[in-house]
Design brief:
5 helices, about 170 residues, 8 strands, alpha/beta, two-stranded parallel sheet
């Protein structure tokens, strides 16, 4: 779990900003959880099964973005929970991986897709992906609070993203 940007803390029991229940659930399932401060670590440990970023309050530095980039190139896994209206500094990294995360709050008006506390209730989860298969198999919805929109950037196999202004030449 990345630290250093005001992320949610694993030992915090605050229902709004704490992640102690997530930590307990992961440990119950025999996962080992550890904090990871990228500025002092210089790289993600080889044995890290996944890196999780929970609601950073300040942007990542370019050097930290590069550490995550190198980890992802090694077939690393990254879970991001990004609050709306907060700068996170990972736009370029996400864009390179074909993900566009906009600073747009997702609002659902239909009561079937909201909880009583106005959290977003995601139904119709795909059984195709290993991450969502257990939710699908157990007929469980995904419940999330305030969230940004995210979209996969669809392109051909030889396409790439560039944030450079001006003309780009293709061969």
């Amino acid at each position: 779990f990345v630290t250093g940007h005001g992320e949610m803390q694993l030992n915090d029991i605050d229902p709004a900003r704490g992640a102690s229940q997530l930590d307990a659930l992961l440990r119950f399932r025999r996962f080992e959880t550890q904090p990871l401060e990228l500025t002092s670590a210089r790289r993600v440990p080889q044995d890290a099964g996944v890196v999780i970023v929970l609601a950073p309050q300040t942007p990542f530095l370019r050097s930290e973005q590069e550490i995550l980039r190198e980890y992802l190139r090694r077939a690393g896994r990254l879970i991001l929970a990004l609050n709306p209206t907060r700068e996170h500094g990972l736009e370029d990294l996400l864009f390179e991986w074909g993900v566009l995360v906009e600073d747009v709050l997702v609002i659902e008006s239909h009561p079937r897709f909201r909880t009583e506390s106005d959290d977003l209730l995601v139904r119709g989860i795909s059984s195709e992906h290993p991450i969502t298969r257990s939710l699908f198999d157990n007929n469980l919805p995904l419940v999330i609070g305030a969230t940004r929109s995210a979209a996969r950037i669809a392109a051909g196999a030889r396409a790439w993203g560039s944030r450079r202004a001006g003309r780009v030449r293709c061969r």
